[in-house]
Amino acid sequence: MPPDRVMSRPTAVLLATAWGVGLGGTFGVWLPWYLGYWHVNKPLPGWVIAQVIGVVLVVLGMIPIVQAFVAFVRAGGTPVPAASPPRLVVDGFYAHVRNPIYVGFLVVLLGQALIFGSLGMLRYAAIAWIIAASAVRWYEQPRLTRKFGEPYLEYLRAVPAWIPRIHAWTPPQR
Fold first, then answer.
1. 7-14 — which CB contacts under 8 Å span 24+ positions?
2. Residue 161 maps to a domain
3. What value does the mean pLDDT take over residues 60-64?
4. pLDDT(3) > 70
5. Taking residues 57-80, what's their average pLDDT?
6. 45, 123, 128, 132: which has the fewest Cβ within 10 Å?
7. Domain of residue 112, CATH code
8. pTM
9. pLDDT (average), residues 36-64
């Protein structure tokens, strides 16, 4: 898709949904299950409290993921790099943290570590963060800098990558 072309909403919804289910299902469900991290352990007495917190984290982690997908579709694209929106998305959770999809995904993985009482799942989350941080640093940031130039660099300086800012960032009016 040419970089300045807006994708039709039904196409964007379908592609974003397929991308989210495919990647999220593979790396958030199938692979942890396949690696054996989805066996319920209760390493300490009263672990049920940690499991409840884990469920809450999984639900909370899904919120920025879904909202970010919606923001991409509203902007005429998807989170798929080859079908990204023609404009820089800096609203919603993106006004607080540059990587809400990755942050949400890491929260989901940490929630799973608590649900299953799995040290392996905790290591998996750490590896996922290293991979995400590497992808952001060496692929996404250079790509977005080339595509959007100074407005992206301003955003990069104003909005943190991993720890959300409390107050939403508002881009300067041009």
1. 7/76, 7/77, 7/78, 7/83, 9/73, 12/72, 12/73, 12/76, 12/77, 12/78, 12/83, 13/73
2. yes
3. 98
4. no
5. 96
6. 45
7. 1.20.120.1630
8. 0.92
9. 93
